[in-house]
Amino acid sequence: MKDEVYLYNHARWEALAHANALFTRPKLDLDQQSAADYLGLDRLGFTGELAGKRILCLASGGGQQSTAFALLGAVVTVFDISPSQLERDQAAAEHYGVELRLVQGDMRDLTCFDKDSFDIVWHPYSLNFVPDSRVVFHEVSRILKEGGRYYLMCANPFFSGLTHQDWNGEGYTLQHPYKDEMMTSYPDQEWVYDQSQSAAIQEPREYRQTLSRIMNGCIREGFLLAYFSEVKSNDPEALPGSWGHFAEIAPPWVEFVWIYNPHILSSK
């Protein structure tokens, strides 16, 4: 599905990887305990042994979560739009002496995987890079086994497109309509990569997914909500107009854990 969305995301993430952006840097200092802590598995309610579990790291290249799961004994597949990101996963796997399966593609098309292929689908921040989240949920429901877990992190729908640069002296001004597929863009944060060396990288292009679309989209595919969290900075001393202050006032991210039960709705 190499449409304009695919081409934009492919080009941007290739450029970010070449710029050594924060989310493209492999984690090379993990052991089993720190891997579990890094993933936050206890906090998210992932209890029990992961050894032998089939895990898909969805749109999750960069050599971070994939090798953390592999160190815990899981059988890990990484699916990402960026070949350079997948190269980072391969380098991290070689560093730790673990094996990963690497697949390049678009999260909206997971037909390369058979039905019931995975016990866990781990989907960190990337859902907002496509216009219609429901397409992704449908694909995930097909490849996730019954009783499997779907971890999802995405932009907080209420603050999508808002940043610390929207500080008006009293608060952060909402500017974009609250509707699905509203495209937003904003400058990359200065801590993401060395912007003096990477001026050619296109700004982020994201699409708002309203909370109702996310919730109803997952429910209609047979997912039961097991965990929900609003993620903020926990930086109460940050100065107004800074990223830390913004992320304390307006949590920029939300995360979910869904359990797949295809029989929960009679229409499924």
From TrEMBL:
Protein name: Class I SAM-dependent methyltransferase
GO MF term list: methyltransferase activity
CDD domains documented for this protein: AdoMet_MTases (cd02440)
SUPFAM superfamilies on file: S-adenosyl-L-methionine-dependent methyltransferases
Organismal lineage: Bacteria, Bacillati, Bacillota, Bacilli, Bacillales
Residue ranges annotated for the Methyltransferase type domain, each copy included: 56-151
E.C. no: 2.1.1.-
Enzyme class: transferase
Key words, A-Z: Methyltransferase, Transferase
Keyword Manganese attributed: no
Alphabetical GO biological process terms: methylation
Coiled-coil segments: none
